[in-house]
Amino acid sequence: MPKKLGIMIAGLALFLLIGGGCSRTDAPTTNTSGATETPAVKDTSPIKLGWLGPLTGDVSSVGTANREGTELAVKEINDAGGINGRKVEVVYEDGACDSKTASNAGNKLINVEKVTAIVGGLCSGETLANTTVAEENKVVMVAYGSTAPSLTTAGDYIFRVVPSDSYQGKYAANFVYSTLGKKKVAVLYAKTDYTEGIAQVFIDEYKKLGGEVVLTDTFLQTDRDLKTQLTKVKNSEAEALYFPTYTEAAVVGFKQMKELGLSISIIGPEGYADPKIVAAEGTHDTMYTAPVSPENESFNNKFMAATKRTDVPIYTTHAYDATKILLETIKKVGTDKEMIKNELYNVKNYQGVSGEITFDKNGDLATANYEIMVIKNNKSEKYSAQ
Amino acid sequence: MFLQLLINGLIAGSIYALISSGFSIIYTTNKFVHFAHGSTATVAAYFLYWTFSGLGIPIYITFPLTIFVAALFGFLIHLVIYLPLKKRKTSSVILLIASIGIMIFCDNLMQLLFGANVKILSIFPHGRGIEFLGAYITPIQIAILIIVLILFVGLWTFSKYSRLGKIMRAVADNPELAKTTGINSVRIQHWSFVIGSAIAGLAGILIALEHNIEPSMGTHLMIQGFTAAVIGGVTSLPGSIVGAYVLGLVENFGIWWLPSGYKSAIAFVLLLAFLLVRPQGIFGINKGARE
Amino acid sequence: MPLLEIKNLHAGYGELKVLTDINFELEKGKMSVLMGPNGAGKSTLLKSIFNITKITSGNIYFEHENITKLPAYKLIGKGISYVPQGKINFGILSVRDNLLMGIHRIKDANTVEKKLEEIYTQFPILKEKQKEYAFSLSGGQQQMLAIGRALMSSPKLLLMDEPSLGLSPKLVKEMFQHIKNIRDNFGTTILVVEHNLKSIMDIADEGYILVQGGVIAHDLCCNLKKSDAMKKVFVGEFD
After folding, report:
1. Nearest residue, CB atoms, C90 vs list B173, B185, B288
2. Residues of B near C (CB-CB distance < 8 A)?
3. Of the listed ranges A95-99, B195-199, C235-239, the one predicted with least confidence
4. Closest Cα in chain B, distance from residue C72 (Å)
5. What pLDDT, in 10s, does the model give residues A333-364?
6. The pLDDT of residue A9 is above 70
7. A218 CB near a chain B CB, below 8 Å?
8. Residues A293 and A355: beta-carbon distance below 8 Å
9. Pick from B11, B9, B21, B5: which is nearest to B226 by CA?
10. Which domains, and CATH codes, for chain A?
11. Using the beta-carbon criterion (under 8 Å), do B252 and A228 form an inter-chain contact?
């Protein structure tokens, strides 16, 4: 009996260890911040921020550039003397655009590194995986690419400088139905927070407009063979295909569409701006919605000069803005986490390099503007109806 | 649509067959599940990527070299890990656990060396498939079908008619008796790993060309490869290939009515069904109580 | 010249000691029977010659060559064939392929065919069923197949472990006739472990009685038949 008990205890311990990917809460405390921030005592210890995004895996070609956007913002602040004499330090963690990896990363930032706030994540799945632990620990998250509608109600401490897809999905549906004039559409989407969210918004709006969704089908983010689904699309009466997906599956999908001779219009969400998709085979004439970003030549130039890149991948400006907003808020109110959160709700008409930023009562962007881009010969350009 | 689904099913089946046949050879001769077999294909694919894309070695050298490296890889695993364990008379469960360990190690090593990003091998251009009665098939896919067909015929003849094939079946059936008829069982087991892993090497090449390269590619296919071997009959080499086609076709036609997310579920249901109703598979011989 | 010599053999399975200080000699061309109660170590003795048991000490010589440590698969090459008990054939191979396994080292097709014909002549039923799976054969036919396979390599020494096991009396008679023919026609030295003593004692030349891992009697069969030890074995007093 004792031996069996020992095994059960060992098994339970193992189970808890593995299940430790779920969040742990620390005793609510503001040891490293808060009370010590009285102006009378000059604190020169560095301010610690966390950063979360895909440095490997899907969309990493975007994530690595976004990280550099944050690095640029931090460098500018530090070169100007830091915040009230304190340098800013950032701990960068890889979310891999995957919930499990991001959850571990977020846990590490919050419970081990004890960061004051987090810039991140990029993928909606990365952010959603950490909303609970962030809320419980009062750690503000400013996401710079997470567009899933469900983030709107994720918590008081969750903000984003990108619009919710509840806008983008509707915009896409209107474009396909009214501008392109396609009355029958197929929707094929990956089973992730981001893609499922926007697909659902699209479907609801499209039907409301009077269009017919002749086929909906799904695949996993990790699937690398979409021939079956694409065969069904080809066999349906769809005049266009709405195809929300992350990068790796997108590349496979476009290649196989070409092989199968699927020639209807393909429309996707802003994730298509990933350079890897733009450069992929079979993407000619593919259209996608993108948040309108003002052309900010001075930012682009200084970014490219600092990183030796030849372009500014999507969401880099947003990562830069998210970082700047956070740091300016900390400059104003200090490192008390609750005060940071409260002050963020006051951000109005902030002129960022990604556009004007106003947070609504949910921490979402109050307005959203989109445009249509089209990929021609592996280059993105603005769409113009001809 | 029927024809396209048929073609899709045959292509999927061909890829499963590449994995299941090599696995079957190793399983029947050694009587334990060599889960790391999928990793052999993965290692082969990355080797091809490294030599072709990285070093620029032409394909008429790298293709056979990759197959050789895969065979060597499998042979070394047997020599260095399984054989010492077998000498200590460990059970097949322990060997299975060891194989899982090897699989995890290899997949992670590939990720460490090459990164987790999907790699694309652009040896042959991908383009619109050739149209055939309303369905499309690409040259690479045709090549895969033909190669697997040749493999099937080759394995059938080898297993049934060649001396080594018969000896391998003898060792698979009764290793103790084989010893007394002068068969060096250990050497035959080496051969099974060499041949089986070489086929996995071929699998790695073809899968890399048709799909792309990822650290987990081989292991993902092991599930279907294993299922295919069970369906076709683990004691039958050509059976494992037939089982692969059955699986590929059932998966693709099953998705006609069901949402595509059920594809993996179909594989598992089929596996379960066979294990319950006909565990010896389609071609497996039910020896009954006679022996 | 003794074909096989066993000197001071101690052997067993793992911790279990089965054979204690066995001394043994087989004359060429003779058939010897190994008898004794269950668990005496008869099968173990045969397996020791074939090196598939753990030999703790002692030596085995075949044609004056020390074969104690030789791995099992090399013994066919020396001229020793073995018909074991239990799973005696390759079930999923055809009858013909089973026979071919007995001679798989020989690559010359003519030699192989000739040998095959020889065996078919001795066991016509095997020719009749040559394309069928071995597992589908009856008990007696399987036994014949196993013997046939052992003979394919033209062995100098044939070891047999309870060939009559599970056979009907008629088949047993047939079986022993075959065994007698093998010794008479081919001059093969035979060592057979048997329980069915009545029949075998008539055709064998010598006998050994093995009890609890030791040889307690050895003589020509005609003498052994009338001995006391024999009566005890017959009655099962040692069991």
Report:
1. B173
2. 163, 166-167, 169-170, 172-174, 176-185, 235, 285, 287-288, 290-291
3. C235-239
4. 6
5. 988 999 999 999 999 989 999 888 999 999 99
6. no
7. yes
8. yes
9. B21
10. 46-164+296-357 (3.40.50.2300), 166-291+370-382 (3.40.50.2300)
11. yes
pLDDT given at position B263: 77
pLDDT mean for each 10 residues of chain C (239 residues): 82 78 85 82 84 83 87 86 87 90 84 88 87 88 89 89 83 84 86 80 83 77 70 61
Which pLDDT tens digit goes with each residue over A232-241?
A: 999 899 999 9
Which among B24, B28, B181, B187 is the top mutation candidate for probing chain C, defined by the most C β-carbons within 10 Å of its own β-carbon? B181
Residue (of A226, A58, A49, A203) closest to A140 by Cα position: A49
Q: What percent of chain A has pLDDT over 90?
A: 70
Nearest to C91 among B163, B184, B287 (CB): B287
Residue B5 domain flag:
no
Measure in Å the smallest separation between the Cα of C236 and chain B Cα atoms. 29
- Domain extent at residue C54: 2-235
* Gap between the Cα atoms of A114 and A22, Å rounded: 17
Using the Cα atoms of residue B108, residue B113, residue B119 and residue B125 in order, give the sign of their dihedral: negative
Pairing of strands A265-268, A286-291: parallel
Burial profile B19-49: b = 16 or more Cβ within 10 angstroms, e = fewer: bbbbbbbbbbbbebbbbbbbbbbbbbbbbbb
Name the A residues in 227-246 with CB < 8 Å from any B CB.
227-229, 231-232, 234-235
Q: Which amino acid is at A80?
A: A
The CA distance from B105 to A315, in Å, is 35
Which residues on chain C are in Cβ contact (under 8 Å) with B177?
84, 87-90
Nearest-CB residue to A255 (from B126, B251, B255): B126
> Inter-chain contact A234–B261, Cβ cutoff 8 Å?
no
- Ranges A68-82, A174-188, A314-328, C208-222: which has the least confidence: C208-222
How far apart, in Å, are the Cα atoms of A54 and each of A71, A114, C44? 15, 21, 66
Q: Give the distance from CA B83 to its chain's centroid.
A: 21
The pLDDT assigned to B291 comes to 32
The pLDDT, as a whole number, for residue A29 is 40
Q: How confident is the model at residue A30 (pLDDT cuts 50, 70, 90)?
A: very low
CA distance B238 to chain C (A): 15
Does any domain span residue B147?
A: yes
Residue A94's SS3 state is strand
Question: What number of residues does chain A have?
Answer: 386
Partners of B247 on chain A (C-beta within 8 Å) are: none
Of the candidate ranges A45-54, A173-182, B226-235, the one whose mean pLDDT is the lowest: B226-235
* Structural domain contains residue B270: no
The total number of structural domains in chain C stands at 1
Nearest one of B243, B245, B238 to B275, comparing CA atoms: B243
Beta strand extents in chain A (DSSP E only): 47-53, 88-94, 117-119, 140-143, 158-160, 184-190, 212-219, 240-242, 265-268, 286-291, 350-352, 355-357, 370-376, 379-382
Contact: B131, A261; criterion CB under 8 Å: yes
**Within-domain flag for B276:** no
Q: List the CATH number of the domain containing C133.
A: 3.40.50.300
Q: Identify all chain B residues contacting A251, using CB atoms and an 8 Å cutoff.
A: 118, 120, 212
Q: Given an 8 Å threshold on Cβ–Cβ distance, is B261 in contact with A219?
A: yes
Cα B145 to Cα A101, A216, B16, B148, C89, distances in angstroms: 38, 31, 11, 5, 38
User: Whole-prediction pTM value?
Assistant: 0.79
When comparing pLDDT for C87 and A264, which is higher?
A264
**How far apart, in whole angstroms, are the C-alpha atoms of residue A344 and residue A341?**
5
Residues in chain C: 239
Count how many domains chain B has. 1
